[in-house]
């Protein structure tokens, strides 16, 4: 449940950033602002410097993928105001081809956060001078948090004892995921009796009553 102070703050931001912030909502008692992609630097500058907001800390930049949408990616900026003890999210959308303005000149912490979003989703940040992979290997292909990225990946790596180095190979599955045999440790046991199950089996002639009493 959002507090009255947070609701007043949301209305204040909508008034001051009219045309940049499209709408707002509350989720788990926190403010979420839906904004225009092209206005992200203006919005974050205002939220950082305005004394009624004072969102001085950028806690994270993260992404989400919705492949069925024309602009499939959400990019979310998570902010904290220690002065007012408020949290806020600023959410924008983008596509695979459309870049977003980097905000490293507003929040220095954004550098690594933007690298992570690029690495996981392939979202481009215009103005980030160090947009390299940060969680995957530099030779990695694809972006593993996209919904269309295969769970098994495209390649696997191992250490080759003869070559004395790590080598990349096509993914090899020792067992097909959908054709389990009866002894597979991944397959649920459905037709086998485990030790102790016999105690739950009803006898052929029914249960014998052990109840005693004084009357017949």
What can you see in these coordinates?
With 216 residues, the chain is of the alpha/beta class. It has a domain at 4-140: Beta Polymerase, domain 2, CATH 3.30.460. It contains three helices and nine strands. The strands form three sheets. It has a five-stranded mixed β-sheet. The protein has a two-stranded parallel sheet with strand order 6-7. Strand 6 (100-101), helix 3 (110-121) and strand 7 form a beta-alpha-beta unit. It is elongated.
Output the CATH homologous superfamily of the domain at 4-140: NADH:ubiquinone oxidoreductase Nqo5 subunit
Query: Count of DSSP helices?
Result: 3
The largest sheet, given as strand count, sense and whether it forms a barrel, is: 5 strands, mixed
Shape: elongated
Q: Can you give the mean pLDDT? A: 85
CATH-level-2 architecture of the domain at 4-140: 2-Layer Sandwich
CATH topology of the domain at 4-140: Beta Polymerase, domain 2
CATH class of the domain at 4-140: Alpha Beta
């Amino acid at each position: 449940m959002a507090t009255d102070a947070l609701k007043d703050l949301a209305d204040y931001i909508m008034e001051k950033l009219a045309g940049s912030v499209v709408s707002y909502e509350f989720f788990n008692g926190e403010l979420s602002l839906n904004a225009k992609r092209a206005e992200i630097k203006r919005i974050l500058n205002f939220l950082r410097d305005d004394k009624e907001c004072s969102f001085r800390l950028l806690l994270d930049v993260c992404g989400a993928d919705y492949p069925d949408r024309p602009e499939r990616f959400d990019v979310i900026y998570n902010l904290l105001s220690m002065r007012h003890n408020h949290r806020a999210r600023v959410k924008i959308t983008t596509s695979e081809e459309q870049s977003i303005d980097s905000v490293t000149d507003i929040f220095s912490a954004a550098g690594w956060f933007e690298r992570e979003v690029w690495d996981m989703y392939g979202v481009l940040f215009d103005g980030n001078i160090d947009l390299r992979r940060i969680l995957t290997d530099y030779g990695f292909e694809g972006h593993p948090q996209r919904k269309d990225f295969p769970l098994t990946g495209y390649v696997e790596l191992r250490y080759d004892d003869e070559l004395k180095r790590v080598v990349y190979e096509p993914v090899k599955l020792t067992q097909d995921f959908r054709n389990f045999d009866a002894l597979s440790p991944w397959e649920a046991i459905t037709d086998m009796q485990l030790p102790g199950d016999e105690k739950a089996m009803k006898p052929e002639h029914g249960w014998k009553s052990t109840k005693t009493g004084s009357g017949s």
